[in-house]
Amino acid sequence: MKRGILLLAMLLSVSFISVISAACTDTKPVDYCFGAKVYTHQCNETIWSPKLKGDCAILGQICKSATCVDAEMCKTNSDCDDSNPCTDDQCVGETEKRCENNLKQGCEFNSQCIPIGSRITEDKTSKFCSITNELTEQKSTLERCDNDYECETNSCISGKCNRQSRTDLIIFTLIIALLLIELSKFFRRKRR
Fold first, then answer.
1. Taking a C-beta distance cutoff of 8 angstroms, is the pair 113, 106 a contact?
2. Alpha carbon separation from 120 to 12, 148, 153, 154 (Å, rounded)
3. pTM for this entry
4. d(Cα 124, Cα 133) in Å, to the nearest integer?
5. What is the pLDDT of residues 149-174, one digit of tens each?
6. What pairs with residue 56 in β-bridges?
7. Helices (DSSP H) in 21-86: which residue ranges?
8. Residue 123: its pLDDT value, please?
9. What's the pLDDT band for 63 if we cut at 50, 70, 90?
10. Is the pLDDT of residue 86 over 70?
11. Is 67 exposed, middle or buried (0-12, 13-18, 19+ CB in 10 A)?
C-alpha cells in the first residue's frame, strides 16, 4: 500500500514540476509605461524580464503609449482620461499639474480592462489576455504554452497544450496507482 502511495506521489510531483518549469514561448518584446519610465518586457529563455528603456522625467516629459511625450496640463484626474480602461489616469504635480496614464496589468475588451489569464470569445474565436496585455488566440493541442488559460483545452502540461485536463490526468494516475496496488496484493497472495 505504501509503495502505491509513494508511486502516486512521485507521478504527481513530476507533472507539477514540469508545469512550473515550462519556459516562456512568446519572444516578441512589449514596451509599456510605468510611472514616467518606459520599459520593455521580453522573454529571456525561461522567464519574462523587464528592462528600463528610458526615463521620461529626465526630459521633463511623461510616458504615454510606451513613448516619452510632453504632458498635458490638467486640474483633475478626469482631465487625463485617455478612454483606455487599462490605464490609471492621474493628474500629478504640485505647481504645474500634468497627466500620467500608467498601464495596468490586463487587456481592453468591451470598454473594460480584463485581468491577465481571462478567456473570452471574440468574433467566434477563443482568446485569452496574455502577460503582454494583448488578446491572443488560444492554442491548439500540442502547441507550446506557459499557462493553462493559453490552451483551448485549458490544460498546459510540460509546456504543451494537452487534450486532457489536469483533473483527468490525476484521476487516470489514481486509477493506475490503485490497479498497481491491487496487482501487487494479488501476486503476494499467489506466492504464499
1. yes
2. 30, 14, 14, 13
3. 0.52
4. 21
5. 999 998 998 899 988 655 666 777 78
6. none
7. none
8. 86
9. confident
10. yes
11. middle
CA distance 38 to 64: 9
SS3 state of residue 150: helix
Euclidean distance between the first and final Cα of the chain, in Å?
18
pLDDT tens digits along 120-143: 998 889 999 998 888 999 999 999
Write down the pLDDT at residue 31.
Answer: 77
Give the pLDDT confidence score for residue 12 in this predicted structure: 34
Rounded CA separation 149/126 (Å): 10
Residue type, 120: I
Place of cell 478612454: 83
Domains of the chain, residue spans: 1-22+105-192, 27-104
Looking at the DSSP assignment, which residues form a beta bridge with residue 62?
69
Q: Are 74 and 62 contacting, i.e. CB atoms less than 8 angstroms apart? A: no
DSSP code per residue over 87-111: EEEEEE-SSS-EEEEEEPSSEEETT
> What count of residues does the chain have?
192
Task: Identify whether the C-beta of residue 143 lies closer than 8 Å to the C-beta of residue 155.
Answer: no
Q: Which three cell numbers stand for residue 144?
A: 507550446
Q: Which amino acid is at 161?
A: C
Phi, psi of 103 (to 5 degrees): -70, 130
Instruction: For 147-161, give one letter per residue: b (16+ CB within 10 A) or e.
Output: bbbbbbbbbbbebbb
